[in-house]
Write a structure and sequence with these properties.
By secondary structure, this protein is mainly alpha-helical. The protein has helices spanning about 10-20, 30-35, 40-45, 50-75, 80-95, 95-105, 110-115, 115-130, 140-160, 170-185. It contains ten helices and no strands. The relative contact order is 0.12. It comes from Streptomyces neyagawaensis.
């Protein structure tokens, strides 16, 4: 592939594709340069270093993922919204494993706070949970429960970690029902007093 037309957007998109093929942890500037048929140095006009590249892939993937989720939950509330949110999350994690791994990477919090994709993720996630009547600090606790459940299930499923004969999708659906019951019957703490911070990415 010729160097002509190489842009930061093309480099990041190619890195995301490469992540899906070989794993996010295996994405390197050298591997990406080979894909474009250029020397490693040619990429430094578009990304500062490997960490910058991986951060950009994380933001790209985060934006893609939340758009899927937003489309799925539009017009829904309560259990229907939770099931739609969870289904879109699981589908993206299984269909785009490298991109999904990027969304779990540790990123500088100042960069996260400035990211429109991550702010949108927070708004949609917290909005769904507020429909259950939750406020802080319960919102953050509920987000952590959902994130750990979704991520743990998807990671185990992708790795073939469920060996029992029970259908994996059936177990997933039952888990979402259990989460719905837990959210409806949340053991609430006293609400946080004082200024309420703006939306932040799920914790």
């Amino acid at each position: 592939m010729p160097r002509t037309g190489l842009t930061a957007e093309r480099v990041v998109a190619a890195a995301a594709d490469l992540a899906d093929e070989v794993g996010f942890e295996n994405v390197t500037l050298s591997a990406l340069a080979r894909r474009f048929g250029v020397k490693d140095a040619s990429l430094y006009s578009h990304v500062r270093n490997l960490q910058d590249l991986r951060t950009r892939v994380a933001f790209l993937a985060g934006g893609e993922m939340i758009e899927r989720i937003a489309d799925a939950v539009a017009g829904r509330a309560g259990k229907d919204a939770l099931a739609a949110f969870a289904g879109a999350y699981r589908a993206y994690a299984l269909e785009r494993p490298g991109r999904y791994a990027a969304t779990q990477a540790r990123i500088d919090q100042d960069l996260v706070a400035a990211s429109p994709a991550f702010r949108r993720t927070a708004e949609i996630t917290y909005g769904m949970l507020r429909a259950y009547g939750l406020e802080e600090p319960d919102l953050t606790d509920a987000v952590r429960l959902l994130r750990s459940t979704f991520h743990g299930y998807c990671a185990l499923e992708a790795a073939g970690g469920f060996g029992a004969a029970r259908d994996v999708r059936t177990s997933w659906d039952r888990a979402i029902e259990a989460l719905h019951v837990a959210l409806e019957n949340w053991p609430r703490e006293a609400a946080v007093t004082g200024p309420v911070p703006g939306p932040v990415p799920p914790s």
